[in-house]
Specification:
7-stranded antiparallel sheet, 60s Ribosomal Protein L30, Chain: A, 2 domains, binds calcium ion, about 30% strand, 8-stranded antiparallel sheet
């Protein structure tokens, strides 16, 4: 009984932190469909993934589908668990930036081995003597998939101060914070700042290319553990250029939900971060003159159905007006208010309601 209560309290605290920064930053509303898995990794809930089961020589990875731009800030928080076996446990989890959606070597490579070029924040739970691993569970920034600390960007240190083992059947909170203006990478474990490293990731690691995927890799070898991650919070500016995946989806007639339209409850004013996202669509929409642009507004279930229909229509209209102000012909755009119909998330949490307050975009090819 106590654990669910703690979980609820924890979720509540996270929500407060998310909501308090909602207006000024780019908190991403996400779920498992925003990620791709490889190897043995599988989603176990909307935002949790099992990277490996506690079996011999297993490897798995979870990657965010879209590339990010390392010239923009990136913050990610998650809960990780390294399983329950200490003495016989291995190998850990690595947070990775890498330009390809691939998984590296298992065992001591922790699914990160041989990924080139790459930067990995290694959370290593097994001591490989020949890699200069210390006896305690440790963290270090590693580059290009070299698992040996001889080549690490930082020296290994304990994941948590005064703690030698984190394979303790518990979840641990991890936060990665990349600040491109200061060129500084921070790693927090259970609230403790453990790595604070200045590094020019774009130039020194990726040869000037700032577009990368990010994700997690994990592996077992001759020793095993069940490795899990649950993503809690993402803040980053999505790649401004519209991804090929979204273009294809739209040209197939599928709807696209805008990621960064956190309309305040009851308001139809276009949030400023929404404009940035819409700007990425302008060129693409201009290039499809034979397609009608359909905008549909949706709300959460708070308030009356008729008021929700009205406000959702106004929100869709705000988006339409913005597109028109950027040069899209008004007669190409149709907008509708669907109110609280078709929720995509439960309406009994603020997080779910925020997801439901959304605008969907569809393209329909006009008859010639
Ligand atoms: Ca190791
Ligand atoms: Ca251990």
């Amino acid at each position: 009984m106590i654990q669910p209560l703690i979980r609820i309290l924890f979720t509540f605290l996270i929500l407060i932190s998310v909501l308090s920064t909602e207006i000024s930053s780019q908190n991403i509303v996400f779920d498992k469909t925003d990620f791709v898995t490889s190897g043995d990794a599988i989603p176990t809930s909307d935002r949790c993934f099992r990277l490996t089961e506690a079996i011999l020589w297993s490897g798995g990875a979870v990657w965010y589908k879209e590339m990010i731009d390392l010239n923009d800030p990136f913050i990610m928080e998650m809960d990780v668990s390294f399983g329950c076996y200490d003495e016989d446990g291995a190998d850990g989890i690595v947070f990775v930036f890498h330009p390809y959606l691939t998984t590296g070597f298992a065992g001591e490579g922790i699914g990160f081995g041989r990924l080139f070029p790459s930067l990995g924040v290694e959370m290593d739970t097994y001591q490989n003597y020949h890699l200069e691993d210390p006896s305690y569970d440790h963290v270090a920034i590693m580059t290009h998939g070299y698992p040996s600390h001889e080549y690490g960007l930082t020296r290994p240190k304990r994941l948590k101060e005064g703690v030698s083992n984190v394979e303790d059947c518990k979840t641990h909170r991890v936060k990665i914070d990349w600040d491109p203006s200061a060129q500084n990478l921070q790693f927090y474990f259970d609230g403790q700042l453990r790595i604070n490293q200045s590094v020019d990731i774009v130039n020194d690691i990726f040869g000037g290319d700032s577009k990368v995927y990010w994700g997690f890799t994990s592996a077992t070898g001759g020793k095993v553990n069940k490795h899990m991650i649950c993503l809690e919070r993402l803040v980053f500016t999505e790649t401004v250029a519209l991804s090929k995946r979204i273009r294809t989806l739209l040209l197939n007639g599928d709807p696209h939900t805008f990621k960064r339209m956190p309309f305040r409850s009851g308001s139809a004013t276009l949030p400023s971060e929404a404009k940035e996202e819409l700007d990425a669509f302008i060129d693409f929409l201009s290039d499809q003159p034979d397609h009608t642009i359909i905008l549909e507004g949706f709300t959460d279930s708070s308030g009356s159905a008729s008021a929700n229909e009205r406000i959702s229509m106004k929100r869709a209209e705000s988006v339409a007006k913005y597109l028109i102000s950027k040069g899209i012909a008004p007669d190409r755009i149709q907008y509708f208010g669907q109110g609280e119909k078709n929720p995509i998330a439960p309406n009994d949490t603020e997080e779910g309601r925020l997801k439901n307050r959304r605008i969907e975009l569809r393209l329909i090819k006009s008859r010639v």
